[in-house]
Design a protein that fits this description.
The chain contains 15 helices and 14 strands. By secondary structure, it is α/β, with parallel strands linked by helices. It has two domains: 171 residues, Aspartate Aminotransferase, domain 1, CATH 3.90.1150; 247 residues, 3-Layer(aba) Sandwich (Aspartate Aminotransferase, domain 2). The strands form three sheets. Strands 4-10-9-8-7-5-6 form a seven-stranded mixed β-sheet, sandwiched between helices. A four-stranded mixed β-sheet has the order 1-2-3-13. It is globular, with a radius of gyration of 21 Å. Bound molecules: pyridoxal-5'-phosphate. Pyridoxal-5'-phosphate binds next to α4.
Length: 424
Amino acid sequence: MDHTKSRQAFDAAKKSIPGGVNSPVRAFRAVGSEPVFIASAKDQFVEDVDGNRYLDFICTWGPAILGHANPEVLDAVRRRMEKGISFGMPTEIETRLAEKMHSMLPYVEKVRFVSSGTEATMTAIRLARGYTGKEKIIKFNGCYHGHHDSLLVKAGSGGATLGVPDSPGVTPGTTKSTVICEYNNADEVRDALEGGNVAAVIVEPVAGNMGVIKPGDGFLQALRELTERHEALLIFDEVMTGFRIHRQGAYGLYGVTPDLATFGKVIGGGMPVGAVGGSAAVMDWLAPVGPVYQAGTLSGNPAAMECGLKTLEIYERENVPDHIQAVSGHLANGLADICSRHNTVSFSVQGGMFTVFFTGTAPSNFPEVAACDMERFRCFFQYMLEKGILLPPSQYEANFISFKHTKQDIDHYLNALETFLSAN
Ligand SMILES: *Cc1c(COP(=O)(O)O)cnc(C)c1O
């Protein structure tokens, strides 16, 4: 496979953009190579600037739930943009997306739109502190909630991949109110809550930023009971899992209702959209009704709202979750078969997210992921790339399945995995 033009594009990018990328994982450092530059994408495929075509398991890191460049979404966005791209004034389409979310997730009585997942969790944390009048936040080792200061500790994929567990520039003062517990360990959460002054527990209800790790039996229920007992808010960070692991996210899958939830990725359909939602009683603490300040020039941008709304409409109309469930069930069966014959690998599949781990037993927390054979993952990634299969370039990331991925695509992936494991 020829990567000449990608190499040239990367050299040019590095002269004017730090590391040549606008989000670190894209630089392919964890897999010891250089990134491919993308020219275009359609359905389940992306094409790079050298004309190589790949079966895509990155899917924009989640948003491309319908596959790339859905014609109906493109049409809707084009029509919307012809009326003006942005006004900085209220538009009706914001209400329509909020109503759509409420119709799918009854506990999201009110929602505030922002422009990224990072902004959504930042807002949720401020809101939780304002509402409870308490200070501390409990988060989990390996869970990522965006790159704002107070949550950039033990934050999974990005930092772990680069070997920078905590970023310079984040002051101890900012993170001293952030308490870290191990994922799937409710006892640690109970102890931390008993320490007092906890405003909220924030969790990826299915973790995706240390590879896919499911909550153990009763873990989310325990978080619900413990937070209620200690009058702290429970925040589900569903930026990755929302409208992906289940039509109703973790709320639908596990029957646990959080006080607040954060969204992003799928709800923008590829446009920059984030959201925080929850009960009206909590949400109305946000300005201008309440005292907790939050704002955004481009928040609720009409083109972005249209993209998200059309994506969710198609998602419902075409029963996208059922399709993804069928394809991911096929994948899970195939992976179970492969892992039964190769005891150095394990896997985790949840709805449209999955990770193959280069360790014999599927990890249940971050230290267990860190024990994976990263060198072997690197070889695997390169092997798949040359076979025309684009994987997220880190063991610590989730792979994504879209509406356009077929069982044949999955067989192609499984065959390549099997061949790699037999030869390496
Ligand atoms: C991606 C992600 C974020 C951050 O969203 P951005 O849009 O990249 O700022 C936050 N939380 C989770 C769980 C995510 O997967």
